Amino acid sequence: MSSTKDLEKKFPEVTVSVVPLSESQISLSSVESGTPAPENSEDEAPDGGWMAWRQVLAGHFINAISCGYSATFGIYQLYYTEALNLPAAQIAWIGSFQIFLNSLVWSLCVLIGTFMTSIATEYYQIFLAQGVLQGLGLGLMYMPSTAVVSSYFKRKRSLALTIASAGTGTGSIVFPATVQFLIPKIGFAWAVRCSGFVAVVICVIGCMLLKPRLAPRKGVAIIDVSAFKEVPYVLFAVGTWFFYWALYFGFFYINSFALTLPGEVFTPTSTVNLLLVTNAVSTPARVFIGWIADNHLGPLNTYILSVASLAVTLFGWTAVTTAPGMYAWAAAFGITNGAAQAAYVGAIAGMTKDPKRIGIRIGMIFGIISFAVLAGPPTAGSIIDATGGTYRWAQVWGGSVELLSVVILLVARWFVARGLWVIV
């Protein structure tokens, strides 16, 4: 090959120079030529811009389906208990199994499951359509959106994830309102079908907006075994397991509990307002807690404080005896559970150094806690049935479980940062 000096002798009118390219020029030329750019690091996350915030919007819509729909099961719990005359614990298995599969495809499963629920008349049919089929679809739709949103942000990651998770509140308002208010007018079957039509629109929008930033890593195992060698991660997983064990108790039984208040201050139709209040206040709470985590306390500290506040809220449920008290408690429950669920994702993302492992590690946690959400509502239902339909001991159980979660999470934090006032 001719050297630069040889070329200059042959073509004196042409000046040949070699200029070293910067990293940005290399990255740009790689994109323009269609060649994959070097593997992105967490430092290269855009942390803003239309494309990044578009993923947050997509995550918001997807969470409205994947988590928001599950959080509305209290409406179905009440209807199934009255229409089928079945024990509360047995009905709770439908919703808890749905969330169980949620944590372990996607739009099709949700839509088919929704429309099959509308024509189901037997317990096993409802269990298969709503518990199994919808659960599979909801789970497959949640994890990709969480991983994609995380990859676009670093400094603002907690805020972005909580805005996306606020879609849970949006979905938890839309779906129970659709079902509960349409049942008296057009019947249960068509009310469920209408919620399915709403789900179609949301699914399509979410799919169109979502765009992964990082190329899939080849040869990566489904399970990151190294995570289980990290004591903070293991303790975090155990503490989160207890958090989710009692979490859905409030969602599933808030409606039926309201009907037991003295004076019959609630009707089956008016109890939906409690769920709407809970989910309405949880939406701004999720966004606010993300801002707090990013700018003041840190994601792990925020998560622990949120779970502690949820424990206090569940203990406080035992003192509710009036309609105003029920509405106040519904608002408090919406704030505390929304904050805790939103902070959880940011906390595990903050504990993961490699951005490409965030999805794997969150998925592993979800696989673990899936058994918690499977057992939680039926456990509460069994306590209620065993105590003659009273809720006090189930409420004490819920608060105690959340308190245990706080203790374990505090130990996990001690391994991450020994200082009391350290932001982590």
Automatic annotation (TrEMBL):
Keyword terms of this UniProt record: Membrane, Transmembrane, Transmembrane helix
Membrane as UniProt keyword: yes
Transmembrane segments: 99-120, 132-153, 160-183, 189-210, 231-254, 274-293, 300-320, 326-346, 358-376, 396-416
Compartment list: Membrane
UniProt key word Ribosomal protein: no
InterPro entries: MFS, MFS_trans_sf, Proton-linked_MCT
Topology within the bilayer: Multi-pass membrane protein
Region (Disordered) residue spans: 25-46
Molecular function terms from GO: transmembrane transporter activity
Pfam families reported in the protein's UniProt record: MFS_1 (PF07690)
GO cellular component labels: membrane
Sequence similarity: Belongs to the major facilitator superfamily. Monocarboxylate porter (TC 2.A.1.13) family.
Name of the protein described by the UniProt record: Uncharacterized protein
Species in which this protein is naturally found: Apiospora kogelbergensis
